[in-house]
Amino acid sequence: MSTAAKRKPTKNPSKSSKPKSPAEKSTASLTEAPSSFGDANFFPFGRYTGVVGVHTSLLAFTALFLPRSTFLLELTRPERDETKLTSRDRPQHPFLEALTLNPALTSATICAGVILLQIWWSGFVRGWWFEYSLKGTEDDMRLERRKLEKDKLMQLARALLFTVAGSVPVHILLVLLGAPLTSHVPQTFFLALTLSTLMFFTPAFVFGLPSLSSKTESLLIRLTWVRLFSEFSIRTPVERAMAYPAFGAALGCWIGAIPIALDWDRPWQAWPLTSLFGAVVGYILSSMAALTISAIKSLADEHLRTTKAD
């Protein structure tokens, strides 16, 4: 028998080297083993810690100091007659006066700052997720990165539109839970848009938009959304970095509404200040919790691998 007859048929190189989409490659993360937490590319502890620290610090600065801008205060400062103040105008700390003077402006300013910060943060998370998802040869990964960078602006626009659309059901939910129906509409809208940005924008920018399409990639995206936000099944640090803050923002907003019902007649109880700041605080604390838990798991897995190697 000739050597040509003995030679086994090989696959078409053009088909075997065809890069898969990140959504298809992310199927590996659906069955991710705990040992992968120690992967340096999968969990960049130093870079992740630094970005979380900067992100949460800028969120706190946005909530506390951005509404205190001199230009905004002078532009919207209402004229008050000190002789007509009632018992509801209680003395408050000068630091709080700029935040409570115009709740609608405060809500709008914080919402704008949160949108800008989430765009930056989502870019980091998206790059982190693709670093883990992209596998194969260097050429395949280079081609896929080029394609992803090309589609980045389109994905960003879709995520922003999805976030704005998501603020509509959030607004309705806030009204059903007790927000004013006919009054304070701008305040409620900016709170809903802030919540939608904190909860939905990053997953939409990283994973893609959920849809009812039967295509494989759309099905995987939809299942990922259901697994994270319906089943609360989190299996990777990247998913934890998105899911924990989203739930923390919703919980913080709900807890922040409690002081509004108290009969204290304080200026800072105006709708929706306590809920808005509660959402930001909940997001920050949950981001720190996600970092802490992922770091502990990473160190534990590294210790187990070291023990087994010895």
UniProtKB/TrEMBL annotation:
Q: In which pathway does this enzyme or protein participate?
A: Glycolipid biosynthesis; glycosylphosphatidylinositol-anchor biosynthesis
Q: Where in the cell is it found?
A: Endoplasmic reticulum membrane
Bias (Low complexity) occurs at 11-29
Has keyword Hydrolase?
A: no
Composition skew (Basic residues), residue ranges: 1-10
Q: Map out region (Disordered) in residue numbers.
A: 1-32
Q: Where are the transmembrane segments?
A: 45-66, 104-125, 156-177, 189-212, 242-262, 274-296
Report the main location listed first in the record: endoplasmic reticulum
Instruction: Enumerate the InterPro entries for this protein.
Output: GPI_biosynthesis_protein_Pig-F
Task: Kindly give the Pfam families that the UniProt entry links to this protein.
Answer: PIG-F
- What does the UniProt keyword field contain? Endoplasmic reticulum, GPI-anchor biosynthesis, Membrane, Transmembrane, Transmembrane helix
Topology in the lipid bilayer is annotated as: Multi-pass membrane protein
Question: Is Endoplasmic reticulum set as a keyword in this record?
Answer: yes
Q: Where is the signal peptide?
A: none
Protein name per Swiss-Prot or TrEMBL: Glycosylphosphatidylinositol (GPI) anchor assembly protein
